[in-house]
Amino acid sequence: MALFKFIGSKSKIGIDLGTASIKIVELEKGGGRFNLLNYGIFELKSTDAGGQSMLKLPDDEIVWGIKEVIKQSKIQSKETTVSIPSFSTFSTVIEMPYLSKEELARAIPFEARKYIPIPLSEVNLDWSIVDILNEQPSGSMAGRPTVVEVFIAAVPKDETIRYQNIIKGAGLDLKALELENSAISRALLGNDLAPTAIINIGGRSTSIIIVDKGYERVGHNYEVGGFEITKSIARSLNVSIEKAEELKRKLGLRPIDENIVNEAMSSLVDMMAFETKKTITNYEEAKNIQVSKVLLIGGMANMPNFAGYFQKKLEREVMLGNTFARIVYPEGLNAAIREISNTFCVAAGLAMRET
Ligand SMILES: Nc1ncnc2c1ncn2[C@@H]1O[C@H](COP(=O)(O)OP(=O)(O)OP(=O)(O)O)[C@@H](O)[C@H]1O
Ligand SMILES: [Mg+2]
Q: Gene3D superfamilies from the entry (predicted)?
């Protein structure tokens, strides 16, 4: 859909190649705010998606899917940022002795080797300073920073090349590749530095991340998502995958007597909540702090009563992440924005990236 377009403005697009669908958002920055220009999605049918994922499709089919979304959504911009799914990247925050920036740049690859499970020659390594800590409260070194926290991220080079080819094939300019979780935290948190847990439940996987001082501190990935839930419903009720998908979306976890799918999926959702609880508690205990918010995103967050159920299991307040908190959109979209918010979080965060 073509929403609104400002003449002479420069817009950017974000592309999220998820396993269930391709999502694209086009944003334009004007007067210090982002405006939503267009968005679109290309969904794999759940029958296909149950066994196969988007990223396993041949590159030319992904290129075709991207072009379809661009055409149907009337997206104009070529300036593209694409996300890399968290299961194919490595990132962590490490502590280093405080050095000059030049010395850090030399020392980080050596340090990074300890954390990255594949040879450094096979990855593109990026890093940024999260915080400079002062751990010398007294004595002659008082007030002098001694430890620096550094966020390091590595993307396998063959992945980088694959994404470059796909984007070029779609006739777009790839400005950056970005970690999926960095896009999520930009979209949901902006400059909010408070420790926040974000649960992204997609088709193939669930990721639980803790963002603190603007950077991902903990990131866990579980190979359980919406497909697994659909399959479980199909098995339990002995219905087709299509029917199970329909029931999942219609009944979800609504606390009503005639809810026949409730039981078929609650053990999988309980497991997600259990893992989330453990991740949050471990972080709080290790750092001796309180995680201030728990946010839910991903297509599964659209399921009826999912957030309510999850909150009860987690025994903490859970909110749906608001992707559009920092984006201006046409009033006519008010009703649809809740659902798009969960699905388009990564794509919007990518389009918000400053060059
Ligand atoms: N209204 C809804 N109710 C229940 N489930 C839904 C609803 N909308 C989408 N889903 C489910 O959300 C999942 C897709 O979510 P999402 O679009 O976040 O996945 P993805 O980003 O493509 O996958 P991944 O992040 O795992 O690669 C599917 O399993 C789909 O069935
Ligand atoms: Mg996703």
A: 3.30.1490.300, 3.30.420.40
